Amino acid sequence: MNGETMVAAPMAPASSDAGGAPIFELRGVEVSLPSGGEMRRILDGIDLEVQAGDVVGVVGPSGTGKTTLLRVLGGLLQPTAGTVLLDAKPVVEPTGDAVTVFQDYASALLPWRTVERNVALPLEGRMPRAQRADRIRHALEMVGLADRAGEYPWRLSGGMQQRVQIARAMVMEPRVLLMDEPFGALDAITKASLQDQLLQVRAEIGATVVFITHDVEEAVYLADRVIVIHGTPGRLVHEVRTELPRPRDQLATRDLPRYHDVRHELAQTLRNGRAG
Amino acid sequence: MAARARRALAAVNWLGIGVIVAVLGAWQLLVSAGAIHYHSLPGPLGIWDGLRDLVRIGTLWPALRHTLLAVAQAWGLAVGVGGVAGLLLGSNRTVASWTNATVDVFRSLPVVAFIPIAILIWGPATKAEVLVAAYAAVWPMLVNTAGGVRGVAPRLHDVARSLRLSRTATAVKIVMPATGAAMMVGARLALGTALVVCVVAEMIGVPLGIGYNLVLEQSADQPARMWAYVLIVGVLGILVNAVLVRAMRCAFPGVSALATRAGR
After folding, report:
1. Interacting residues of A272 by C-beta distance below 8 A, sequence separation 6+
2. What phi and psi values does residue A237 have, to the nearest 5 degrees?
3. In what order do the strands lie in the sheet containing A89-90?
4. Is the pLDDT score of B258 beyond 80?
5. Could you give the CA distance from residue A244 to residue A123 in angstroms, rounded to a whole number?
6. Separation CA A270–CA A240 (nearest Å)
7. How many whole angstroms separate alpha carbon B201 and alpha carbon A271?
8. CB-based contact A33:A39 (threshold 8 Å)
9. Of A116, A148, A237, B17, which is most buried with the most CB atoms under 10 A?
10. Closest CB to B257 among A96, A107, A152
């Protein structure tokens, strides 16, 4: 591909033009799940490559299998057909390399544990206490919650709780953060500040991020690439490289003509269910 | 220290206590005025005298001690067995489908009917009392625990898998604490049940403890002392429950904080 903006034809592998081996490689992924006694196909013919270090946004109407795709990437769900490779190795279960951050932070955090002990959860029994404490402190500092370490999560605001969940994923030092509508349940102001914090943290640790959103603007603002899933079963119908400069800025970036072009293109794709 | 005392005072439900005092006062007034005049129902002051009699002649403490020990043993057994069985039943669908019907049948049998059988088997001794009470108390523990395990949010299993917790770690760090609130409810119900069944067992056949002495005073036509025992059983129920709640709060601060939040 040539740095032009668009498009992979629906069935062709949606790849990026950055060099090197992809961190994720999906070939012909199909997922069927039991629903009311029969198998219902959720995803069909998904071909996708994700380059290391990219921020990839996944948009699409609800019920098109976005969450299912993320569960497949995270190893929480096995595809019915096709292959999923993470670093050229088949994904058969969750690895520490790709950790999922869930939308419903309230039920994903352990309410009987303090913030600090929630973040400690994936490290317990895996490293010496001192090293663990270091990592936890660092992760909490990155999300700006170092001073709330001793609180119970349900005493924090929604935005803070989601930051706790992000910190908990980050202490594992994953190569990929998978986020399922991470800011979907938050108000606009909190959302904007968390978006910036996420970008900052990502720049610091250099992780790859794959996130789902149904907010097209959020997808454009955060991502290097936005892919569109559409239909029942869900298919990958379009992808756009945003080609917006980093670091992003809530005002400046959103004023760029390119930002509006990408947003327009995506909105149109979502409306028509196909590119163009 | 002063602040702690003030907080403790603020936590007391003065209105609730006021109602109790008012009821006792009205009762005493009606008895003193002769409005209530039954040999079988003395006033609060008469019952207080009966209680002092019991302390003086030395029957109260041994009775109390026996009943408390029996309740503690029965409760310990019930919580242990019911907790483990509940975790199993809740987490393993096969075990649950094999045993659900059995559990429901045994749970529905009136436990009091087992007391004569238990006495026939083990004789009129503490062992019979403890085992029957444990049998009765095991069900609330088991059913609550199993329900709690089944009620663990599926999301938490996703979290456990995504963070790559082992099976053991998932059980100990996620399933058990998430079930904790339900287990605590089960443990408290089990305690109440154990107390009731112990007292009944003592009334029916085991010649020791509060229940036995209560019946004894009844046959000796000593209503004041009998009432003293009745009130003791009531106060005992409140006290053991309060002690248990406090102990749980110390042992599992996170889960208890959660239970408190749910209660609000």
Report:
1. none
2. -105, -15
3. A38-51, A22-35, A81-86, A89-90
4. no
5. 36
6. 13
7. 74
8. yes
9. A237
10. A152
pLDDT computed for residue B256 by the predictor? 67
- A199: tokens are 């970008």
Residues A115 and A145: beta-carbon distance below 8 Å: yes
Verify whether the Cβ–Cβ distance B254 to A95 is below 8 Å.
Answer: no
Residue B124 carries which side chain, given as an amino acid letter? P
Residues A3-20: tens digit of each pLDDT: 444 444 444 444 444 456
Task: Record the pTM.
Answer: 0.75
Q: Extract the tokens encoding B184.
A: 């605590």
Q: Which two tokens stand for residue A209?
A: 């991020």
User: Quick check: A73 pLDDT over 80?
Assistant: yes
pLDDT tens digits, B23-71: 999 999 998 888 878 888 898 999 999 999 999 999 999 999 999 999 9
Q: Which one, of A17, A2, A90, A5, lies nearest residue A265 by Cα?
A: A5
Mutate to test the interface with B, among A112, A161, A164, A173 (most CBs of B within 10 A): A112
Kindly report the length of chain B.
Answer: 264
Measure B99 CA to nearest chain A CA, in Å: 26
Q: Dihedral (C-alpha) B202, B208, B214, B215: value to the nearest 10 degrees?
A: 70
Largest CA distance in chain B: 74
Give how far Cα B124 sits from Cα of A192, B115, B132, B140, Å. 73, 10, 12, 26
Taking only the tens place, the pLDDT of each residue in B79-133 is: 999 999 998 898 888 888 898 888 889 888 888 888 999 999 998 889 999 999 9
Average pLDDT of chain B, as a whole number: 89
**CB atoms inside a 10 Å sphere around CB B97:** 10
Record: contact B254-A168, CB cut-off 8 A = no
Contact between A71 and A26 under an 8 Å Cβ cutoff? The reply is no
Q: Is the pLDDT of residue A36 over 90?
A: no
Q: Tokens 């629906």 map to which residue?
A: A10
Min Cα–Cα distance to chain B from A154, Å: 9
Distance of CA A223 to CAs A184, A209, A210, A243, A245, Å?
16, 9, 9, 9, 11
Mean pLDDT of A143-150: 93
| Contact residues, chain B, for A92 at CB < 8 Å | none
